[in-house]
Amino acid sequence: MGGSIAAIMAHADDIEYCAGATLARHIGRGYRALYGVLSRCNSGWTKDAARGGYYTSSQEIVPQRRAEAAAAARSFGAELYQADLLENCYTRRDGTRVVPSFTGATRLSGELIPIDLDLPDGPLMSVVAGAGTSWRDNPLARDIAKLLIEWDPEIVIGQEVSNFNPDHFAAAQIVAVAWLLASEKKRIGPYWMPVMFPAPGSFQFPPLAPTDFVDVTGYEEACLRAMSCHRSQGGHLEVTHGELRANWKGWGARLGAVSAEAFREVYRAS
User: CA nearest 25: which of 195, 156, 182, 220?
Assistant: First the structure.
C-alpha cells in the first residue's frame, strides 16, 4: 500500500509484547516499518533463564541483546533504529537484580531494598513530572522527531506503561514529545499507546479505555517468531508466548475477532 508505520519503545522485545502483531499486519499489507529501540540493551539474562542463566546489567549483555533486536527486526521485515539510553534495571554486586521504581528499588520477589549504592546515569525517576517543557530539549526526542518527519508514518506507536519500569515511562515521554515536535513541522499520523488486556485479578493500566483496535488474526505467528529472537529476555519461552496470546484473545473477544491488539490514541494532528 506504500505507507509506513513506526513503533518505538524502550527495550528490545517491548514492541513484540504489545504491538508486534499490529506491526506484522501492516508489513504484510505492504507498509514500511520502523522498529525503534531506545535503550542501550545493557540488561538481560546471559543464558536461558530456564537453564540456570544469570541476570546482568553491564556491557557484557549489550552485544547479545542488540543482535537479538536486529534479528527481530529482520524477522518482521522492518528497519531497526537503535538508540543508546542506559537501562535502569541493574544488578548489585551481590547478584541481586534491582529495578528502580517510584516506590524504591525492588527485588523480583517484591521485597524493598534500600537504594544505598550509586545509581547509573540515565532517565531514572525523571518522568515523574510528566512531559514538561524540559523534554522538548531532550536530544533523543529531537532525533526521534527528525526520524518521524523522514518516515512520515501513518501510525506512531509509543511505549505502553503497564508497570512502573522507569525506562518505559522515559520512552513514553520521549516518543510522545518527539511526535509533538514532528507534528509542528509536518502532519503525521496519530500517536498510539498500547493498552494491555488485564490479566485475571489485575487492573488495567493505563486505566483508560482503548480507542482503536487492530484485528491481528493471522499475524500471531509472525509476532511470536520475532519475540523468540529475544532469548535473553525469555522471548522464546512458552510462558511469554502465553502472555501474548492472552492479550490477543482478550481484545479479540471485545472486537469480535480471533485476535486483536488495543491502543489508546494520545495525539492526533489537527
Answer: 220
Distance CA 27, CA 124 (A): 34
pLDDT score at 89: 57
**Coil vs helix vs strand at 79:** strand
Mean pLDDT for each consecutive 10-residue tract of the chain (270 residues)? 90 94 97 95 61 57 90 98 77 53 36 34 34 68 95 94 70 88 92 86 65 97 97 88 95 96 86
- Our count of domains for the chain comes to 1
Show the domain range for 124.
4-267
63 burial (CB, 10 Å; 0-12 / 13-18 / 19+) is: exposed
Distance CA 246, CA 208 (A): 19
Query: What CATH number did the domain enclosing 57 receive?
Result: 3.40.50.10320
Q: What angle do CA 35, 37, 42 make, to 5 degrees?
A: 145
Beta strand pairing call for 55-56 and 44-45: antiparallel
Given 3-state DSSP classes, what are the helix, strand and coil percentages for the chain, each rounded to the nearest 5? 35, 20, 45
- Quick check: helix, strand or coil at residue 33? strand
Return left, alpha or beta for 30; rule: phi > 0 is left, psi -120 to 50 is alpha, else beta.
left
Q: 3-state DSSP call for residue 193? A: strand
